[in-house]
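Q: Please design a sequence for this.
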């Protein structure tokens, strides 16, 4: 039996009167890649943002039900602590434009008031950039601004920034949608390598991408989790007709 890292029970999320995530029950297994897919507006990004409490930053946003990491209720923890354990990478690369590549990587420590010795900072920067296969490309340009990099490099820098604080879970909201095919391929290779150390939950519109990188896939429709299973089963023999209709292109 695989160990569960994130568990939600009867989880709901709303924006005012708009109920966008409805009674979601899911057990996310540790050290795997989990894809979350479904048509636009189905609640998948909102659910992802609830896992590290980004949802509540939006005025009028509410949630209910249970969301746990390692059997601890995420909503009983301090949000900063949650976001140190659960990193996030967004749809468009968003390095801090006024910070150097070096300072972008260690931004999580500075933002949370964690002081580090220079030797520790240097080690974290090199380790994090090496982990995302960016160190050799930027090691002579660490003082340049992050915006100096290409789109694909910027996205890898954002992943390095998320990994620098040593989270257990990495959330990715369509991390390749703004990238060209070569950069996308590099990010997918990276996701595959990172699962040895992290649990990765990736929202994607791209079914081929889900099939390539994820061992488990959840299908959302109209705010509900219709099906969650091994990716091979979801794509070859789904249990629910609605999943089959979405995968075969009948809607979405």
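A: Design:
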């Amino acid at each position: 039996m695989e160990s569960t890292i994130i568990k939600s029970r009867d989880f709901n999320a709303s924006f005012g009167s708009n109920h966008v995530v409805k009674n979601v029950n899911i057990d996310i297994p540790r050290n795997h890649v989990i894809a979350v897919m479904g048509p636009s507006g189905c609640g998948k990004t909102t659910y992802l943002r609830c896992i590290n409490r980004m949802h509540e930053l939006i005025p009028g946003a509410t949630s209910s039900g249970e969301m746990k990491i390692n059997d601890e209720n995420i909503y009983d923890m301090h949000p900063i602590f949650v976001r140190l354990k659960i990193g996030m990478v967004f749809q468009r690369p968003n390095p801090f434009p006024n910070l150097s590549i070096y300072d972008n990587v260690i931004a999580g420590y500075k933002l949370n008031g964690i002081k580090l010795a220079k030797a520790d900072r240097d080690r974290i920067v090199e380790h994090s950039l090496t982990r995302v296969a960016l160190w050799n490309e930027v090691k002579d340009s660490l003082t340049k601004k992050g915006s100096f990099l290409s789109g694909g490099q910027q996205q890898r820098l954002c992943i390095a920034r998320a990994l620098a604080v040593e989270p257990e879970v990495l959330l990715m909201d369509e991390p390749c949608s703004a990238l060209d095919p070569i950069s996308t391929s590099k990010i997918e290779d990276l996701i595959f390598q990172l699962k040895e150390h992290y649990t990765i939950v990736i929202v994607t519109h791209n079914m081929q991408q889900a099939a390539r990188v994820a061992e488990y896939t959840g299908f959302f429709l109209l705010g509900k989790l219709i099906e969650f299973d091994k990716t091979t089963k979801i794509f070859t023999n789904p249990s629910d007709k609605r999943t089959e209709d979405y995968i075969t292109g009948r809607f979405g």
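Q: Thanks. Anything notable?
A: The two ends are 34 Å apart (CA to CA). Strands lie at 4-15, 18-29, 33-37, 61-69, 72-73, 86-89, 169-173, 199-203, 216-221, 224-230.
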